[in-house]
From TrEMBL:
Residues 132-412 form the Amidase domain. InterPro entries: Amidase, Amidase_dom, AS_sf. The gene is LOC100279085. One of its GO terms (molecular function) is catalytic activity. This is Amidase domain-containing protein. Signal peptide: none annotated.
Length: 552
């Protein structure tokens, strides 16, 4: 009796074409859906060919030929507010404190590290012009950028034009408020007409979007002066971009993290008085903490994102990097608001952070809170209690990644299809995540359960805790929760060079509040900073110490 040689299934598949049903059956394991029989798989195959694929292709032509998510926003909107009804109260401007007895310093270095409130008083009292301030900050940007790699585009011509307009208005007796004539920078995912908006990517490094982002329009109407488009990590990921990698002014041997790398580093180094960055999953919190600046990730929806590159429409937020919580409040008051180009934006009825009675607040502190903050707030009359957020959802981090990656893929579908992911600056970042995202069936129900549990667990007015804990970063962004990043000190770097160094590692904490209560977090941060000076320290860019050579 003849016997045929044994052929494994693997070898058989090599010799014979794989049927669509077999291929589909094999692929189901990547969707955790290995329960269909062959008959159902054949039905699914026919349905996909006849309906799904043609529909995908037609819809892609309609909304996915342009990258970046600038147009055709989703009609499925995330509402971060915990209120049961719609809040329709009138939005009122905050009542800012006026800096008293402010005099112009004799050297530019001291001017560069003044707060927005102080610089605004110098402008208002005509001790300095906007043109002079613009000169000072452009010089600093050009002086330190070769080391920090924090600037993508200088907007010099625009800056001098806007500075002249600010000075002319003041000469006519028209003062627009505390940002009148104040220079600033924008993360380079924010569109400004006639200037490149590169998204930090070599694929888009020559892209010009002749549209005005809502946040830019708001700042322009307040008289602020744009001096630079600042580094975003490539496609808003980390600190690597097509021109290099942004460094931390406090320790220029290490990098800034990202993706709001340029706004954090430039504000820290006194290259701008303030900057606007963005966060989807840590892009404000991480670089602000690393570079030792005060920053605010506001409640989701507080600031309209029209004409800003989008990663995830239910996670993206714009917020300020500043010298202090007072400055963050001033900038937030200017940029907050709704716009038709961002259906998720809304008029958030914030209280005035300058009129919060903090002695009536109960504030929790987590196990990883910086206790100096707890002690200072307690001394100011705040009731402090031990606190813990309780929730049963164990997949917080994966919910964040799934939400972010599937949305990002929808906004950069064409980019991936054209093979530009092969040219991406860091191959272990977006390329890997967006390939994986092709295999994700998106879902939001677990996110809803998490939000309900956090709302029920939030039994205090605010809480203090580590601001760079990844679980908390994911949780805060999924919930839409505001947090103020607060510098709380400095410590020695690891393995300092012989002979010593002035390079330092920054210590920070976060002050968190429920959605729509940014004013509470800001008020607490202002109270802490009113009796401490950690936020006023200057990084040692020019004076590292003896025998401290930076390896480039």
């Amino acid at each position: 009796m003849d016997t045929k040689p044994f052929i494994s299934a693997k070898d058989a598949l090599k010799k014979e074409p794989i049927s669509d049903v077999i291929a589909l059956k094999d692929s189901m394991k990547y969707f955790d859906a290995e329960f269909f029989n062959d008959s159902k798989l054949r039905e699914m195959e026919d349905g996909a060919k006849e309906f799904n694929v043609p529909a995908f292709r037609e819809n892609r032509k309609l909304v996915a030929t342009e990258n970046g998510g600038l147009h055709n926003p989703s009609v499925l909107l995330f509402k971060s507010s915990w209120s049961s009804g719609s809040m329709t109260s009138e939005t009122r401007s905050f009542e800012y404190p006026r800096a008293s007895s402010v005099h112009r310093p004799t050297n530019d270095e001291d001017i560069a590290f003044m707060s927005v409130i102080e610089l605004g008083e110098l402008i208002r009292t005509k001790q300095i012009t906007s043109r002079e301030l613009t000169d000072i900050f452009l010089r600093r940007l050009k002086r330190y950028n070769p080391v920090l790699e924090a600037v993508i585009t200088y907007t010099e011509d625009l800056a001098y034009k806007q500075a002249k307009e600010a000075d002319d208005l003041l000469a006519q007796g028209k003062y627009l408020g505390p940002l009148h004539g104040i220079p600033y920078g924008l993360k380079d995912i924010i569109a400004v007409p006639h200037y490149k908006t590169t998204w930090g990517s070599r694929t888009f490094k020559n892209q010009v979007l002749d549209s005005e982002a809502y946040v830019y329009r708001r700042l322009k109407s307040a008289g602020a002066v744009l001096v630079a488009k600042l580094v975003t990590g490539s496609l808003a990921y980390d600190d690597i971009w097509f021109g290099g990698r942004t460094r931390n002014p406090w320790n220029i041997e290490e990098f800034s993290t990202g993706s709001s790398a340029g706004p954090a580093a430039s504000t820290s180094a006194g290259m701008v008085p303030f900057a606007i960055g963005s966060e989807t999953a840590g892009s404000i919190a991480y670089p602000a903490a690393r570079c030792g600046v005060t920053a605010l990730r506001p409640t989701f929806g507080t600031v309209a994102r029209t004409d800003v590159m989008s990663i995830s429409e239910s996670l993206d937020k714009l917020g300020p990097f500043c010298r202090s919580a007072v400055d963050c409040a001033v900038v937030l008051d200017t940029i907050r608001g709704t716009d038709a180009g961002d259906p998720s934006s809304r008029e958030v009825a914030l209280g005035d952070p300058f009129h919060v009675d903090i002695t009536k607040l109960t504030v929790g502190y987590l196990d990883d809170a910086e206790m100096e903050v707890v002690d200072v707030l307690s001394s100011k009359g705040v009731k402090l209690v031990p606190f813990k957020l309780n929730y049963t959802v164990e997949s917080v981090q994966s919910i964040l990644n799934i939400t972010m990656d599937t949305d990002m893929l929808a906004h950069f579908d064409n980019w991936q299809r054209e093979g530009h992911d092969d040219d991406y600056e860091a191959q272990d970042q977006w390329p890997v995540e967006l390939r994986r995202a092709r295999l994700i069936p998106a879902a939001q129900r677990a996110r809803g359960k998490l939000i309900r549990e956090i709302k029920d667990s939030f039994t205090v007015d605010a809480f203090v805790g580590n601001v760079t804990d990844w679980e908390r970063v994911c949780l805060g962004n999924l919930v839409g929760m505001p947090v103020v990043v607060v510098p709380t000190g400095l410590k020695s770097i690891e393995n300092p060079p012989k002979g010593g160094t002035k390079r330092r590692t920054t210590v920070t904490t976060g002050i968190y509040a429920p959605p729509d209560h940014d004013h509470i977090a800001l008020a607490l941060a202002m109270a802490y900073q009113s009796v401490t000076d950690h936020n006023k320290q200057r990084p040692p860019i020019d004076d590292l110490g003896p025998n401290d050579v930076i390896q480039r």
